[in-house]
């Protein structure tokens, strides 16, 4: 029973970070109609940025995460217009071209990271490493708890932005209909670019938290792209609210598989489940809408 | 009523050109050393793989990120059947490899190709990753340690096997897609699926057929590759790099064209080997692939082949690029 409770807590804590990882991805799909293959790439780059910030400048990842957020907000804002351009171009299949384009970006990130930093895993140290909080039978690493809380803070911030600001209203209008939003005076191109920026910033921040809890190497990107896909598909592509449930579901699934079946099967079972969900309920288990 | 002339000058030129290429490829091994021969064998393989991917990605308009799974199925079938406890000969293993890959393609293609583009891409990718993980945990695949095959060190044999397989793939695709009703169906469903369906095309059937054909060719090359390299492990035959290369080769050469994949495959493979011999490894090759995809999507969506034949000539391309700056 203790093991069961401990696994439950671990699953929820990781699930919170997966929410932060996927929520921006969903927003991008809802607004730009782009499936971004590079989502794991942004996660990885966020982790590496935190690694270099703590190694070279000694900035703790729980502080540098805000720097990472700002940095990737600008990078994403810069890249956004290109994505928008490809998605709205007059190719035969702009959706597939956009998919191929982000696939290229992802390949560039993964290959570039391999080239620059080799296959080695790097761990990101924090002052919170190795500290624990005991709650009855359950032991909670302080780092995971803080990471969870930060991830929730970022996700909550996105919801406040979406539902309590003029910019958020413009984003929601875009998600409903590009043409109508444009006619109502929304600068479609600019808002889309900022949405892409917010997405990369959120995903890179989640990457900092993941790198702090585990470690980071160039091939983690593929894993987290698939995790993001999993959560997104379970929630229904484009559904931001559904991510809250689906992220926790994946966190719990992975934790229980790792505890009771064996860690080396966890990826296999996660991918198998994703595949089954796609077949049984391709529109998502939880409905859609922003 | 004037009948269509059988031999137009254009056709004669084309036939002469193809004949010249065939003869050149046949006599090539006599003039090059064994190192270059290996590169040529690899180039033939990648051209064939790109051709296979193009059937689904280019003609049917369904981007598959899971073709490494079929390459791996072919490689592992051959490797497992050629282990000393079974001891099948190489050519005998080709048939089960192809049948298995078709069975898997039908089993996963049937349900997933009902999903539209993006979902299909995700589903195939998840499937390929799942198979990769499976190969690392199962016993009869040798796990992460991989499998060794009986070595057959005859480079000429592999060159000609790859040549025949590759030529058969291209001729088969040309006949099936450019010269038959199947080709019209598959292109119709790419361009407008509901419209194709309303004309009585059974789109789900056509999609699965094209996916199975593509998978079978990919598995065939996987089998030959396994015998050629004599050692396989999960990442060398099912790793994401295999799919990555196939996608980029087709995009670079030209989506949905017969000869584009050949052009893209040969060019990129030579680039790959050149980088390998210059830098000692191919790590820098991956970011280059990424940049190529992004540039092709932005500036050359119809691929390199469109510069040689078709609407988009080089001059126009340059003005397009300048117009965007």
From TrEMBL, chain A:
It is a multi-pass membrane protein. Keywords: Amino-acid transport, Cell membrane, Membrane, Transmembrane, Transmembrane helix, Transport. The keyword Membrane applies. It is found in: Cell inner membrane. CDD domains: TM_PBP1_LivH_like. The keyword Transferase does not apply. InterPro entries: ABC_transp_permease, BCAA_transport_permease. PANTHER family: AMINO ACID ABC TRANSPORTER PERMEASE PROTEIN (PTHR11795:SF445), BRANCHED-CHAIN AMINO ACID TRANSPORT SYSTEM PERMEASE PROTEIN LIVH (PTHR11795). Belongs to the binding-protein-dependent transport system permease family. LivHM subfamily. This is Branched-chain amino acid ABC transporter permease. It comes from Marinobacter azerbaijanicus.
Automatic annotation (TrEMBL), chain B:
CDD domains: TM_PBP1_LivM_like (cd06581). It is a multi-pass membrane protein. The chain crosses the membrane at residues 12-32, 38-56, 88-110, 117-137, 157-177, 211-228, 248-271, 283-309. Keywords: Cell membrane, Membrane, Transmembrane, Transmembrane helix. It is found in: Cell inner membrane. It comes from the Bacteria. Its main location: membrane. This is Branched-chain amino acid ABC transporter permease. It comes from Marinobacter azerbaijanicus.
